[in-house]
Amino acid sequence: MASLRTRLAIWLWGPEPKDRALLAKLDVTLLPYFSLIWFLFGVTRASYSTAYISGMKEALGFEGKEYNYMSTAYLVVYAVCQMPGTSLLTIVRPKYVFVAANVTWSVLTLITYKMTRAWQVILLNAIEGGVGAQFILGSWYKKSELGIRAAVFCVFGHIGSMAGGWIQAGLLQTLAGKGGLPAWKWIFIIVSVMTVPVALFGWVFIPDLPAHRAAWYLNAEQKEYAVTRLGSPRKESWDRTVFKRVLLSWQFWLLPFIFMLYSLSVQMLQNNVMAYWMAGQGYTTIQQNNYPTGIYATAIIGTVLYAIISDKLKSRWEVSIAIGLTFVIGSAILVSNPPTDAGYFVAFYLLGTTFAPQAVWYSWLADVTSHDFQLRAISTGFMNSFDFAFVTWWPLIFYPATDAPDFHKGYIASLVTGALTLPLIGLIAYLEKRDMARGVIGRVVIDNSVLEDDGSREDEPGKSLNPPVDVRAREVDV
Q1: In DSSP terms, which residues pair with 4 in a beta bridge?
Q2: How many CB atoms lie within 10 A of CB 28?
Q3: Which residues cross the membrane (predicted)?
C-alpha cells in the first residue's frame, strides 16, 4: 500500500521529494481556492444568461440590445480593472485583494435579486468585473506543472457555467414562486450565499506570493524552497525601465492579440447564441437551459487534454495549432447552415473544446515572461484588457439579440478570426525558440557551489534573487 501511495504521489507531483511535499500542499490550498472562485464566477456569469431566458427579461423590461449592453458593461469594467488589478498584486498582499473582491462580489450578487429595472441589473453586473488568478498560479508552478493547474482552474469555471444552467432549470421546477420570488431571483441569492465560505477559505489558505513567505502551512524549509525553485527573474523591480521593457516586448503585444482573436472566435458560444437558436427551433425553456451546458462539458475535455499534452511536451504551440484548426472547422460548419439540428449541435460542442486557450495560452504567457516580474504582471492584465476591449462591442455588431435566431454574419466573423490565429501561433513559437536560444527569456538560478565558495548565503528573506554578474547561472524550467 505504501508503495502504491508513493507511485501515485510521484505520478501527481513528480520524483523530487521536495517538489512533492510543496506541490501536495499547494494543490489542496492555493489551487482549490482559485478553482472554487472560478466555479462561482462561472455560475454567476451563467446566472445572468439563464435568468434572462427564464423570466428576468420580461420582469425587468429588457428591450432591444439591452441584454448585450449588460454583457458589454461588465466587460468594460473588467477590462479597465485588469492591468492595475494584476499590478496591484505585486505590491499588496494578494490575500487582501482577493478576499475583499470576494466579499464585494457576494454583496452585489445578493442585491441583484432586489432590482426592478433593466438598467439596475446592467449597472450591478458591470461592477462585478475584477482581477484574475493566473498571475498567482504562475508564481508558484513550473512550466511542466502550470498547464494542468491552469486547466483545473478553468475547468471549475466551465463546471460553474454548466451548474448555472442546471441550477436555473432546477429552480424553475422546485422554487418558482416560493417566498413570493420567481425562480430567476433565487439563483442570485444562492450564489451570494455560496461565495461567503469560499472567501473565508481564501482568508485562511491564500499563500500570497512565494517571496512573502506567508503560508502558515509551509514549514521554513518549504518557504525558502518555494522562493528559489522557479529561479530568479532577471528583472523584478518597479523602476524607470518598466514601461520601456514592457511596451517594446513582443510578449506584451502578441499573446494578448492572439487571445483576443480567440475570444472573438468563440462568441457564438456566448451571448445565448445556442439558446436563441434552440428557441427558434421550438425547444422548451428547460431544454434551452440544459443542452448548452454540453458546450462546457467538451470545454472541460479539451482544456484538460490540451493542458496535459502541453505540459508533457513543455511546449504550447503544438496544441495551439490544433485549437486554431478547430476554430476553423467548427465555424465553417455553422457558416454552411447545416440542414439538420445535429449539424449545429456538433459544431457548438466541437467549438466548446476551443475554450482551452484560457489555460494553455495564459500558461504560454507565463512561460515567455518568467524572466521579467513586471512584464508578466502587466502582460497578464493586458491579456484580458485587450481581449475585452474588442469583446465589449463585437457582439453588438455580430451577435445582437435582435438577430436571433440567425447569427450567420457572426459565424463568418468567427471563421475569419479563428483562421487568423494560425499564423500568429507560428510567429510566437518562432520568437520563443529564438529568444530561448539567445538566453534572453527564462528564469535563472544561482549556482549554489559558487555562493558557498564565496561564503555568502544563497538567499535572504526579502532580498532580491537576481544573480550578480560574476555568479554562474543556468536556465531553469519554469
Answers
A1: none
A2: 12
A3: 30-48, 68-89, 96-113, 119-138, 150-171, 183-206, 250-270, 290-309, 316-336, 342-365, 377-399, 411-431
For residue range 417-443, list pLDDT tens digits in order: 999 999 999 999 999 999 999 888 877
Please list, in sequence order, all residues whose beta carbon lies within 8 angstroms of the beta carbon of residue 73, skipping any fewer than 6 positions away. Answer: 122, 123, 125, 126
Which amino acid, 255?
Answer: L
Residue 384 reports pLDDT greater than 90? no
- Domains of the chain, first to last: 16-209+243-438 (1.20.1250.20)
Q: What 3-state DSSP class applies to 12?
A: helix
The conformational region for residue 257 under phi > 0 = left, psi -120 to 50 = alpha, else beta, is alpha
Q: Report pTM.
A: 0.73
Res 310: pLDDT:
93
Task: State the DSSP H helix or E strand holding residue 444, giving kind and residue range, or none if neither.
Answer: strand 444-446
Q: Is residue 473 classed as helix, strand or coil in its secondary structure?
A: strand
Task: Say if CB 206 and CB 192 are below 8 A apart.
Answer: no
Give the range among 72-81, 234-243, 453-462 with minimum mean pLDDT: 453-462
C-alpha 466/C-alpha 391 separation (Å) is 39
Give the model's pLDDT for residue 249.
Answer: 94
Picking from 36, 65, 339, 79, the residue whose alpha carbon sits closest to that of residue 200 is 36
Contacts with 262 (C-beta within 8 Å, 6 or more apart), sequence order: 323, 327, 354, 357, 361, 418, 421
pLDDT single digits (tens) 115-125: 666 766 666 65
For residues 382 and 79, the answer to whether their CB atoms sit within 8 Å is no
Per-residue pLDDT band for 250 (boundaries 50, 70, 90) equals very high
The residue type at 197: P
CA angle (356, 388, 122) in 5-degree steps: 115
CA distance 82 to 132: 8
Per the structure block, which three cell numbers stand in for 367? 512561460
Which of 55, 27, 416 is CA-nearest to residue 218? Answer: 27
DSSP 231-254: -B-SB-S-STTHHHHHHT-HHHHH
Secondary structure (DSSP) of 22-33: HHHHHTTTHHHH
